[in-house]
Amino acid sequence: MTSLPFLAFAASNMALGSSEEELKIKIDQACTAGDEFYKLYYENYDKKRHMLSKLYMNNAKLVWNGNFVEGITDILEFLEKLPSTETSVDTFDCQPLLDTFSQGQTTIAVTIFGSVKYHKQKARAFHQHFILTSQDNFCRIVSDDYRFLDC
Length: 151
Known about the structure:
Layout: H1 20-47, E1 56-64, E2 67-70, H2 72-81, E3 85-96, E4 107-118, E5 124-135, E6 138-148
Parallel strand pairs: 1-6
Antiparallel strand pairs: 1-2, 3-4, 4-5, 5-6
């Protein structure tokens, strides 16, 4: 698996004074990057979970149904202990974050709604929210929040 390029979105950040046209371009670029990201993420989550290491930053944080895990090593260890999955994404949304909220770092928020079927279990609805940032012109997960919706 190769890491996902941050596309043209990494070339310039979004400032508060951006024009409406610049903002539209940033949103379109964020959506393209987010679309490619979530497809790559869930393909690997379902089939090659060990490959997710290429998508997380070293200091990433994960909250999985209330369980807090910090650091890429601990996150991968946690995820690899979960049963095998089949994930179906129903909808997603992507938004670029303003420079002022991300210390000038190119950053996008990706929100996913879908269903997941764990080995020999019925499918469950879930919500997942990622904060992605550009590191060496590749998407990296800074923050990952995963919740089942059927409490």
